[in-house]
Design goal:
- The protein is an alpha+beta fold and 91 residues long.
- It is 15% helix and 22% strand.
- The protein has two helices and six strands, in the order βαβαββββ.
- The protein has helices spanning 24-33, 48-51; strands at residues 9-11, 39-41, 65-66, 69-73, 79-82, 88-90.
- It has a four-stranded antiparallel beta sheet with strand order 3-4-5-6. Strands 1-2 form a two-stranded parallel sheet.
- A hairpin with a 5-residue loop joins strand 4 and strand 5 (79-82).
- The radius of gyration is 12 Å and the shape is globular.
Length: 91
Amino acid sequence: MGLERSRFLVIYCGCCPWNKCPNIRPAYQQLSSLGFTRVKALYIAANFGTDWVAKGYPVAKGRIAIHDLSLRSDSEGGVGVSLGRNSMASY
């Protein structure tokens, strides 16, 4: 059983500064092409550890498989969507 395509998803990339991020656009486009209709990108200025975890915002770990996407936990405690060799977006 996969995620409902109408489920609200928030994706992020916390590996690098937002203005240099090579991951968020492909992640958004891939989810949209798979029929997800309620996808939003979370703005993280510098990186996930500094802009989210260090500020005490909530994190969760988990693993779910959706068709050809692989969801996995990242090192900062988020859940990531693996879209390829160097791509990761999370919710």
